[in-house]
Specification:
Four Helix Bundle (Hemerythrin (Met), subunit A), four-stranded parallel β-sheet, 3 domains, ATP binding, 16 helices, alpha/beta, aminoacyl-trna synthetase, 476 residues, four-stranded antiparallel β-sheet, Rossmann fold
Length: 476
């Protein structure tokens, strides 16, 4: 597989440091508000990436963090709890972390290898800051805050392709007293009355954002590890500053081999943001559409390109998901009707080959999703009509490869039909087959209509009848 590496601006062959072990870190949310569809795009992409690697025989250790202490969390706590914010601020991240896990479940995102929180790793961060001060890359301000000195790091700006002189010329001095350079950033923030704090040699306070991820990623994955990712908005300054810290601490040029970034999500052509009032939450979308439809909607745009969010795309994706389930349900039932030998060759292999070829070429999910959908339609239009002309082994092979493709994209996650529905439908199909044989078509149609009322669609292929069960949009 070739993947685009932001660090080199090139497509590169994906090769891990340890054979068949892929270690990756994706920057997680700051849990001060509901997760939105922009967040969902990032985590669904890396879930698909992880599923693909696992399908290729890799063990994947994917780490996603929570920045569970931050100015935004403190401000949210003050809005909600007023004078009680100092005591109750933890309720804010706990609430939105719980929502993150619920939405991840609804999106069928597989659990990560680890979910470290900043508040659980402060001691490690203090140790890193001590080392950086001792190495001469960090300094203490009069108020006790500790800043990383960007000018001490060779080639600062390598990830975002910016020169430090240009950054200096365009920089605005931030309201942080004691900084030697406007580009310097906080490793440790001094305590402000009414805020949470932890003990440190310099003053009570809390860690800075850029330090947190490099500490937690290398703690869980070692150094160097294989890939580091997140949204494209994190390239500068967050990921740039992570690289600078790692260079100073470890003395290496890169602590992650591949840097993978997911493009912006736009609404009516504008980047989604609270200031524009165009934020769409995952909770809102998943109350109307299935998680698989949203996954397919994400897949329709290449991960590196901006994606325009619209409900029209979701409607299209929901219809695609229904077709994908129809092919799965009915081919599973049709296997029993297959013959003993192949009397006719079927051209289904091209969909399989082009699906994997698309993913191997910079993880092109738009093409991969079209191949999966194309195979679903081929199963319905051709395979089911010729089921008695192919062997059971061939039918099972088609079904197996189809399921593997769908599992990589995560769009056949509600395969199980309720047992009571399955038993009732089988009995109804048998009765209807007898009615059709006896030419009692009006009664046969009545059974079809009643089954449709409970979400079951019947499709006739000559004397054979297969059914598909329409899963509800919500995760059961």
């Amino acid at each position: 597989m070739r993947i685009y590496n932001t660090a080199t601006r090139q497509l590169e062959e994906f090769v891990t440091y340890t054979p068949r072990l892929a270690r990756g870190y994706v920057c997680g949310i700051t849990p001060y508000d509901s997760v939105h569809v922009g967040h969902g795009r990032v985590y669904v992409f890396f879930d698909m990436f992880r599923r693909y690697l696992e399908a290729q025989g890799y063990e994947v250790r994917l780490v996603i963090n929570f920045t569970d202490i931050d100015d935004k969390i403190i401000n949210k706590a003050r809005e909600e709890f007023g004078a009680e914010a100092y005591k109750r601020w933890r309720e804010v991240p706990e609430r939105y972390i719980a929502e993150f896990f619920e939405m991840s479940k609804r999106l069928f995102i597989e659990p990560a290898y680890a979910y470290p929180k900043v508040t659980e790793n402060v001691e490690d961060m203090v140790a890193w800051i001590k080392a950086l001060v001792e190495k001469g890359y960090a300094y203490t301000a009069p108020d006790g805050s500790v800043y990383f000195e960007v000018g001490k790091v060779p080639n600062y700006g390598v990830l975002s392709r910016q020169r430090i002189e240009e950054l200096m010329a365009g920089a605005r001095v931030e309201p942080e007293p004691g900084k030697r350079n406007p580009l310097d950033f906080a490793l440790w923030k001094s305590w402000t009355p009414g805020e949470p704090w932890w003990n440190a040699p310099w003053c009570p306070g809390r860690p800075g954002w850029h330090l947190e991820c490099v500490v937690m990623s290398t703690k869980h994955l070692g150094m160097p590890f294989d890939f580091h990712g997140g949204g494209a908005d994190l390239i500068f300054p967050h990921h740039e500053n992570e690289i600078a810290i790692a260079k100073a601490y470890f003395g290496v040029d890169n602590f992650a081999r591949y840097w993978i970034h997911v493009g912006y999500l736009t609404v009516r052509g504008e980047k989604m943001s609270k200031s524009l009032g165009n934020v769409v939450t995952l909770k809102e979308v998943l109350s109307k559409y299935s998680g698989e439809a949203l996954r397919l909607a994400y897949a329709m745009s290449h991960y590196r390109k901006p994606m325009e969010f619209s409900y029209e795309v979701l409607d299209q994706a929901e219809e695609m998901a229904k077709t994908i389930y129809t092919a799965y349900d009915e081919l599973g039932q049709a296997v029993g009707d297959a013959g003993e030998e192949d009397k006719e060759a079927l051209d289904y292999g091209r969909y399989v080959e082009e699906f994997y070829a698309a993913l191997e070429d910079d993880f092109s999910t738009p093409q991969a999703a079209q191949q999966l959908y194309g195979l679903a339609r081929y199963i319905i239009s051709t395979v089911l009509h010729k089921i008695d002309k192919i062997s059971r082994n061939t039918a099972l092979s088609i079904l197996s490869q189809y399921v593997k493709m769908a599992d990589i994209l995560g769009v056949l996650e509600r395969r199980e039909v309720p047992k009571e529905v399955e038993e009732a439908v089988k009995a109804a199909v048998e009765v209807r087959a007898k009615l059709r044989k006896d030419r009692q078509y009006q009664l046969a149609d009545y059974i079809r209509e009643r089954l449709a009322g409970i979400g079951v669609e019947l499709h006739d292929f000559g004397q054979r009848t297969y059914y598909t069960y329409r899963r509800g949009n919500r995760l059961r």
